[in-house]
UniProtKB/TrEMBL annotation:
Topology with respect to the bilayer: Multi-pass membrane protein
Name listed for the protein in its UniProt record: PTS system mannitol-specific EIICB component
Stored InterPro entries: PTS_EIIB-like_sf, PTS_EIIB_2, PTS_EIIB_2/3, PTS_EIIB_mannitol, PTS_EIIC, PTS_EIIC_2, Sugar_PTS
Keyword terms of this UniProt record: Cell membrane, Membrane, Phosphoprotein, Phosphotransferase system, Sugar transport, Transferase, Transmembrane, Transmembrane helix, Transport
Amino acid sequence: MNEEKAKFSLKVAVQRIGSALSSMVMPNIPILIAWGVITTLFIGDGWLPNPQFALLVGPMLAYLIPIMIGYTGGKNVYDHRGGVVGAIATMGAIVATQGSIPFLNTVSGMDPSSTNFVSGFKDAVASRGTDVPMILAAMILGPLGAWVIKKFDAWAQPKVKAGLEMLVNNFSAGLIGFAMALIANKVVGPIIEALTKVMAHGVDFLISNHLIPLANLFIEPAKILFLNNAINHGILTPLGTEQVLKTGKSLLFLLEANPGPGLGVLLAFWFFGKGSAKATAPGAIIIHFIGGIHEIYFPYVMMKPALFGAVMAGGVTGTFVNNMLGSGLKAPASPGSIIAILSMTPKGIGSFAAVLAGVISAAVVSFFVSALILKNDKSMVDDSTLEAAQAELASNKAVAKGQTQVATDTAIVATHIKHIIFACDAGMGSSAMGASILRDKVKKAGLTIDVTNRAIANLTDAADTLVVTQEELAPRAAQMAPSSTRVAVSNFLNSPKYEAIITSLTGSQTADQVVAAQDDVTNEIDLNLIDEVVFAHDATAIGSATMGKETINAIFKNNGVKIPVSDVEFLALSAYNAANIVVVVTQGNLDKAKHYAPNAQYLSVDSLITTHEYDKMVARMKK
């Protein structure tokens, strides 16, 4: 038992370190994207060569990106004050390794529109031999500088006389930042430079010997254990940026971001899955492949652990193809959407073809391996819902580790809650979608509670806060917010616990009134008199409408109901203005839908991907 607990604690510790790394880089991804776009467009071999705009490339990489990461790392530890000291310390490391003014002047003197600009830029880098972007140093110095000033404040502030607070605060931060900059200049910068070079040579060796695909044997399962952002932004982004400086692109940006392995798994569930897993797979494909939220496919793999082999096979295949074809991106693709990936692809049909070949090959291999597993897995016939399978898996994990589920019983939720926070590894993507769903439910219930999302590393402990997180991250949530009420769910996008949360927050009487109000809208619908079901949505809800449509199609099929189901945007809804049409719409858009089709019947739901109301509608048909 102690050994299991030790493994469990190690996993939580690794997740915590990974989150700390990714939380420094992810808020600054827009800067990396801007730098990548500028590089792609304006250098000599770019799409739109421009001498003036190309001058932004060097300073942004040398100064802006590391300083912002150092500031963010410090701010995560000790607010703005920590961020300032972290940025000062980072500058010390930059100057130690760049000697950047002469170098940048050399680069700036070149003509970016000339054919010799790219080779000249690379020659300038090679001749200096010491030009290493201090991204890794910033990820160390930012939090370290903030920790030092935080400890100093804890010691000094109780001793400061009234009226001297501003003087002490400003001088202490300035002097500590000064000292940290000197230490970074003489110690941290040179060490990070040496380590970066060693790692870069290691990556070059793996790539040149076609061994880099082996990295996906670690990356793919680690992603699904919520280390995806840590790997991509904490490890691959710094190394990839160094590689871009030398070669103009990097394969490392495609190792974790490749959507092919997840796409293959979701396609396999679409064709060979059962129950809700099959019904929700098409919508999940849109969210994953187009939206770039990879977390959407993690529960599908976790419900059938053999599928870890499928994503590993797909990842290795995709990276192998990318390596052989010389694929690479000019900057990180975040989120991992095919749109973001193609926007960061270097100029040239060959470059786009190579990147797409890596994505397609990964998807094909992952699909066939997943299909083989699903078709031969007899337990799939018992898999009635994705939620049930996820809950069973989480329960088994908890028992095996000697742990109990952390605060998953929503009966403990009380009316003192003033804030609801959805927490995931990065505080973006899936947690934002979950927060949006529950925020709508909270609003419909007449509550004034704010619902937000953030990275789990940034949780603060408060007794008046309800924290909602994935079951895999529940132990970390317990450590970060022990006094908060905590609820763990298997899937942010479709959890029955949301209804229980609303019931507990409102009290049973108010909750009953809400349910009764919903029933009043739906209890007159008779599917025996209906010729078509239509999902009405706006342009921002295409994914949820698709998932809802596939879900109700699956329910109809299982119950022998042969009624067509479609989806349209509100502007096209007037074509369905008839009493034999049922329009499915979210409660917030009910009045809008009725404006376009006043004669249709309506099924008003909290979320288009819910199943409770669809089951009730079919049950009434059978009475």
